[in-house]
Design goal:
Elements (H helix, E strand, L loop, with lengths): L20 E2 L9 H11 L6 E5 L2 E5 L1 H17 L7 E5 L4 H12 L3 E5 L8 H8 L1 E6 L2 H10 L8 E4 L10 E2 H11 L2 H12 L6 E6 L9 E5 H12 L9 E4 L6 H13 L2 E4 L6 H8 L3 E4 L1 H17 L2 H22 L6 H21 L6 E4 L6 H9 L3 E7 L6 E4 L12 E2 L4 E4 L4 E5 L6 E2 L3 H7 L6 E10 L2 E7 L4 E2 L5 E2 L1 H9 L4 E7 L7 E6 L1 H10 L7 H6 L1 H15 L14 E3 L19 H7 L1 H9 L3
Parallel strand pairs: 2-12, 4-5, 4-6, 6-7, 7-8, 11-12, 11-13, 13-14, 14-15, 26-27
Antiparallel strand pairs: 1-18, 2-3, 9-10, 10-20, 15-16, 16-17, 18-19, 19-21, 21-22, 23-24, 25-26
Helix pairs in contact: 1-8, 1-9, 2-3, 2-6, 8-9, 12-13, 12-14
Length: 626
């Protein structure tokens, strides 16, 4: 549910704004240490955590977690690391991430997660700015990153590797750290550790999360223990999770969306299975058979595209059955979403559609899934409705790193496709006169570390955090219409919200990625990375011969095909004004990537980077219309 945007300046006092909604009163204040110890007291499962090793899934119990967290915490203290110190954490999702996180926080320290995809040269700024004195790393490859820039981080005295033997770039292994802790362990040490952990105050700093903004140097978001606690407690009232659930964790724990979700899951006693990687998620879903998952829209888009691809690749009868079932399910969903119970012929047809088509989709995601949670970026309503019609509910929510993260979320009780749900308990939301979403409450960060002026720009004198997103409240459901800085203002002064248009284009089977450009221009255009599987198959059917993908994209036939598919057919019936309608498609050969600078680590598009990086191709597109 979390998504970071570069917010805009806040006024010195509360701006004139439309009426706000409050999602109910908040509960008592608390800490992450309380989350941990409460979970330990309530749950005693053998499979609290799951991970895959050498081709088999292995489990870790609550009892083992408790012992290891305590010994890691005692080991850090044995190294001389003091309460209040900062400890970096550079790792992919795995059990050690969770245990080191809890160890750092129960030792009254604060951790600084670093995205495992970050290149070595971007790491020193984060560790130096935060003042980190130690660092956990997951693998020899991550240790090598630190080793390559270690001389630029003089304050980092200890680098601890999850793997053994100790790799180049690290000083010791996690096993060795735990041995240090074991030497200090015992009933009295355990009592002192727990007592000190529970003495941590709600206002103490828990973590510094460095934003991956599209411009400027990263900013360290200061989240307190109570920021995280309050968000976790509010989710208990809205999202139904219990010790019977099993979640597959694969979004980066370095980002607050998955991390807060895993705190919540751990508190509820749900088992957490760590995917091997983002590429193995489909395989791991079938293996562990999760009952719930958190994801960004990209996963749902890929599943949707693959389903359409398989349907279209089938024979005539298979294709007709699929599209008949899709149409039936769509009518069924329309009735359900309107609060009516489908009956008669429609109910009978829907039962057949489930048996023939949608039961296979349910099996593809493990066969036990109760719901998905979606955040990080807008989810196309067409895709959300397709999953709902297929019997797979996606609870879309909204939030930012600076809001710990959840502001609102759809629930089984209050569910509206096209919205990001109702505001969660204890959180206030107000829509400013210019449409910007403002929020206030215990979820709002303390501020940006070492950046008081940047903090004042986004948190006004009345405590309202300015999100930088544009939205509306409809029957207390929050709907995001765009990001404030993404609004395209044409040369003619017309304002265009690109995200709804991009979302519509993204559902086309020939599209992998799409970005709309047009600020200060006469009209907008779209930059598209094709779905190569689909485009190359179409070209082969048309007997087109090409030596490279770049050559294929340059062919007038291909350009005409993509123009027709997207600008004529996909946008037909979208109700766009003439000034909103893109006039040309620019085709790119390669996907946008984190490494290429076009995506943030949580896969958000850097629109301005793309505008600058592909300036020559964009200029050529506009030149044809001068």
């Amino acid at each position: 549910m979390a998504t970071h945007v570069e917010p805009t300046a806040a006024s010195a006092a509360r701006p004139t704004a439309r009426p706000y909604v409050q999602g109910g009163s908040r509960g008592p204040r608390g800490t992450v240490a309380r989350i941990f110890f409460d979970a330990m007291a309530r749950h005693h499962k053998a499979d609290a955590l799951m991970y895959k090793q050498e081709g088999a899934w292995k489990t870790i119990s609550h009892d083992v977690i408790l012992t290891r967290v305590r010994r890691i915490a005692l080991g850090l203290q044995a190294l001389g690391i003091q309460p209040g110190s900062r400890v970096g954490l550079l790792s992919e999702n795995r059990p050690e991430w969770l245990m080191c996180d809890y160890a750092v926080l129960t030792a009254a320290m604060a951790d600084v997660p670093v995205y495992p995809t970050l290149p070595a040269e971007q790491i020193p700024y984060i560790l130096n700015d935060s003042g980190a004195v130690a660092m956990f790393v997951s693998t020899p490859a991550q240790a090598a990153k630190i080793g390559a820039v270690r001389d630029q981080m003089p304050a980092v005295k200890h680098v601890i590797s999850f793997t053994s033997p100790c790799p180049e770039g690290a000083n010791m292994t996690l096993a060795e750290l735990e041995q240090l802790g074991a030497k200090a362990d015992g009933p009295e040490a355990e009592r002192r550790w727990k007592e000190a952990a529970l003495a941590i105050t709600p206002d103490d700093l828990a973590t510094l999360i460095y934003t991956s903004g599209t411009t400027g140097e990263p900013k360290g978001v200061m989240l307190t223990h109570d920021n995280i606690w309050s968000n976790c407690q509010a989710c208990l009232e809205t999202v139904p999770v219990s010790g019977e659930d099993l979640a597959l964790s694969f979004l980066p724990l370095s980002h607050i969306f998955e991390r807060q979700g895993d705190y919540f899951l751990f508190y509820c006693g749900a088992s957490i299975a760590y995917a091997e990687s983002i590429d193995t998620v489909p395989i791991n879903m079938a293996e562990v058979r999760p009952t719930m998952m958190m994801s960004v829209p990209r996963l749902y888009e890929k599943i949707y595209a693959r389903i359409l691809e398989n349907a279209l690749a089938g024979g005539g009868l298979k294709k007709r059955i699929f599209f008949w079932a899709k149409a039936v399910a769509d009518r069924w969903a329309t009735e359900k979403l309107a609060g009516r119970e489908p009956g008669g012929l429609l109910a009978a047809q829907y039962g057949i559609a489930q048996t023939l088509v949608f039961s296979k989709l349910a099996q593809r995601v493990g066969g036990r899934l109760r719901f998905f949670c979606s955040g990080g970026a807008p989810l196309a309503p067409e895709i959300n409705k397709f999953f709902y019609a297929a019997g797979l509910v996606i609870l879309e929510g909204y939030g930012l790193t600076e809001t710990s993260p959840v502001i609102s979320v759809n629930t089984f009780k209050d569910f509206r496709i096209g919205s990001v749900g109702k505001v969660i308990p204890g959180v206030e939301v107000m829509i400013a006169e210019d449409g910007e979403i403002l929020t206030r409450g215990p979820h709002v960060m303390r501020g940006y570390y070492n950046k008081p002026e940047a903090t004042k720009e986004v948190i006004d004198a009345d405590g309202w955090f300015h999100t930088g997103d544009i939205g509306v409240l409809e029957d207390d459901f929050l709907r995001i219409t765009d990001r404030k800085k993404d609004i395209i203002v044409t040369a003619g002064g017309k304002n265009i919200a690109p995200q709804p248009i991009e979302n519509r284009l993204r559902t086309n089977k020939y599209v992998s990625q799409v970005v709309m450009i047009g600020d200060t221009r006469k009209f907008p255009i779209v930059i598209v990375v094709p779905n190569w599987d689909q485009l190359e198959k179409w070209a082969a059917r048309k007997n087109i011969v090409w030596a490279s993908r770049a050559q294929l994209l340059a062919m007038p036939t291909i350009q005409a095909k993509m123009h027709r598919e997207l600008l004529e057919e996909q946008l037909a019936g979208a109700g766009l004004a003439s000034f909103e309608t893109p006039k040309k498609v620019v085709l790119l050969e390669h996907d946008f990537t984190i490494e290429g600078g076009e995506l943030t680590p949580k896969l958000s598009i850097k629109r301005r980077v793309i505008d600058k990086k592909y300036k020559a191709a964009i200029e050529r597109a506009y030149a044809g219309f001068d």
